[in-house]
Amino acid sequence: MFKKSSIPDSCIISFSLIGGLIVFLTFISLLNLGVTQAGDIPNLISVASESKVIDSVLLTMMAGLTAVILLLVTGIPLAYVLARVDFRGKGLVESLVDLPVMLPHTVAGILVYILFMRRGIIGGPLGEAGIVFEDAYLGIVMAMFFVSSPYFINTVREGFEKVPVHMENVARTLGATRFTAFRKVVLPLSTRHILNGCILAWGRAIGEFAAVIMIAYYPMIISTLIYYRFTTSGLKESSTIAFIIIVICLLVFAGLRYVMKYAGKYDDRV
User: How does the record classify its membrane topology (predicted)?
Assistant: First the structure.
C-alpha cells in the first residue's frame, strides 16, 4: 500500500524558501522595531497613553470604516454591473475604476482636493450647505474612499463573476426579479469576497497618507501624526507611534482573518 510521504516535495520547499523572503523581511523589520521599543517600556506607555495618539488612532479607524461603508453602498452595485453586463465603453469604466491603484498618492490627493475643496465642483455647493471637506473628517473619508475603491470593487466583482449566471436565471424563471435574484442568490454566495473586499479596502484606507494630507492635514490621522512627530521630535517618538499602530493593526487583521475562516464557507461550492 502506498504510504504518503511526510516530507514536502522539492517544488514546495523551493517555493517556500523563495516566498519566505517576503515574510522574513517583514518579520525582521518588526522584530527590530519591537526590540527597540521593548527596551524603553516607560516611553512606550507614555506615548501610547497620549490623548493625541489615541484620538488619532480612533479617527483613522473610524474614517476608514466610514469609507468602507460608502463602498458597500456604491461599490456593490458597480461591481455587479461590471460582472454581469457587457456594454460599450466598459473598458474605459474599468480603467477609471483601476486608476487610483496606478496613480501616485499625491496625484490622487490633488484629484480629491480639486473636487472637494471649498471652490470645487462638489465641495463648493456642499460648502454652502455647511458640509465642509477641507481640514475636516469628511475630507479624510473621501480621500480614503477614492484610493481604496479599486480594491473593494475588483474583489467583489470577482466574487459576483464566480456565481454561475444560470443560478440567477433559475431564480428568475421562478418569478424572482433581477434584484431579488441578486439579493437572495448572488449576494449570499459572494459573502466571502465582499468581506475580503472590505478588509482590503479598510487596510488600504487607514494606511493612506499623501492623498489625505492634500485635503485634510487636520485633524491628524495616524499617518499624519507619525510624519509630524518625525519632523518635529525625531525618530524615537515617531517609531513608538508606528509600533503602536502596527500592534493594533496586527490584532485587528488577525481577528478579521479568523472571522473570515468561518464567513461565507458555502461560497467554496461555487
Answer: Multi-pass membrane protein
